[in-house]
Amino acid sequence: MSNSVQEKQVQSTEVHLTKGDRYATWWRSTFLQAAWNYERMQNVGWAYAMVPTIKRLYKTKEDRTAALKRHLEFFNTHPYVASPILGVEMAMEEQKANGAAIDDEAINSVKVGMMGPLAGVGDPIWWGTVRPVLGAFAAGLAQSGQILGPIIFFLVWNVMRMAFLWYTQELGYREGTNITQNLGGGMMQKLTTGASILGMFIMGVLVPRWTTMNFPMVLSKVHLQKGSYVDTDTLAKQINSGHLSPQTITDIAGKIKDGQNLGAIKITTVQDTLNQLIPGLAPLILMFIVLWLLRKNVSPIVIIFGLFAVGILAYAFGIMA
Amino acid sequence: MISAFFVVLISFLAGMDGILDEFQFQQPIVAATLIGLANGHVTEGIILGGTLQMLALGWMNIGAAVAPDAALASVVSAYLVTGPAQVSVYEGMAIAVPLAIAGQVLTIGVRTLTVVLAHVADRQAEKGSLRGVDAVNMAALTLQGLRIAIPTIIVIAVGAGPVNAALNAIPDVITKGLAVAGGFIVVVGYAMVINMMATPELWPFFFLGFALSAVTELNLIAMGIIGLVLALVYLQLSPRFNGGNDGGGSTGGTSSGSSGDQIDAILNNY
Description:
Helix content of chain B: over 70%
Shape of chain B: flat
Largest sheet of chain B: none
Helix content of chain A: 55-70%
Distance between the termini of chain A: 82 Å
Order of helices and strands of chain A: HHHHHHHHHEHHEHHH
Largest sheet of chain A: 2 strands, antiparallel
Radius of gyration of chain A: 32 Å
Oligomer: heterodimer
Structural class of chain A: mainly alpha
Distance between the termini of chain B: 55 Å
Number of strands of chain A: 2
Strand content of chain B: under 5%
Number of domains of chain A: 3
Number of helices of chain B: 13
Order of helices and strands of chain B: HHHHHHHHHHHHH
Strand order of the largest sheet of chain A: 1-2
Structural class of chain B: mainly alpha
Number of helices of chain A: 14
């Protein structure tokens, strides 16, 4: 009992960040990358996000200068996972301002120590899984002209993002430097692996589904025996002469149901043969060629231009349509 | 005139988000829809946005690497498709690619120029000026917005005539060929995403998705559910993640054990 009373007395002389400060930091963290530059990358944006903290904790010009300077050091990570780091740094600054022996080195090394591993989690989850999966789902709707596509994409993304920024920042602020242990543990790895499984699975789904490759080249023309095909000629003759018998209709309907060829000549294209193996085989092979090129460090833009050229040539020579 | 104003406003938003990567105004599905809305051809904008989105699926800025720029590509291409020029969606898609490179070059330029601003921020810090640092951050953001807004204004000023004349000069074989390429160019986006994530552990899930998708008619929501179930089951069964619970795992440590329990607790509550 007496302990908590004592704590309260100590607290009254200490400076603390208010919830308003934390909200302000949360909103400002949106602009982390605004002044992204090749020298110190996200450094200005980071200092910008730390401004409410510095404003609350330090009142003299000297203190503010020192604080701003230590937060203008090099910093770069995935923009969303900067939030837990911001939370931790807010907690550290708070302790420092209240007299704890935390030097600039410690504040900087926590930042630098967290940014690498966290970027390794943020990039595959946000850019590698959530955006492609959500984007592909929304694009599927959008390609048929439905406004729901863009609306779902925008709302779902931003609700997830804003909630993530706020809760991870609060987590970092609460846990302080303990968070490094938590994030290093199994939970982050579980999350990354789980997200990657979903991502890879959906990529597998997309490859055959929204890729259109049609090879209309004719491989063979076979004249079929009478009776083993849908006799469209006879049908046309009977219709035109006005002698269409119910028997013919039943015959033809049955044959169509059985999947027989329309007309006496069965045309097999390259595409038919590929589809018999498995639909989507050509896109799959093309995907692996592109993947191989990417691993050879060919720029994606070069590959895109190359594929445009392939499309034009393949169309010109009648290989694809 | 009013629609041109909104187009420029959207281009400015897209330019800012091109560097921030937060609200996703730079993503084609959002930008093209908004530009379509401003021009009164919202459906064309949505369709173009969806088409370009598949192309840009794998365009991501990782570390210091700069990806092709979705902002300039989607804004200008959407203006040409939904604006007075009335370019077709496939032509819009083909135009988007060189625009993405131009945007990439421009953002690299602005990111270099911002080094100067970072030094201005240093001087503001010397003075202890919090407002000064705020101003520098926002000035840099404005530059990134102008990076897309200025080219957009130029395209609006040039107008539909020259654009259409240039496009009409292109032979039929090329436009039809571009449409053919448009059908499979999305593969590059898939490959970029896969290139980032693929490990031997994960390839089986890719092939499972491929086979299911090639021979069934299951829609994407069903596929998403299957993918989620696979991920959850895998995490429960994989020895790599179960080792932590009895304290003897290779990932070890008490903290990983307890956080593992948290996830298990969430799963058990279902």
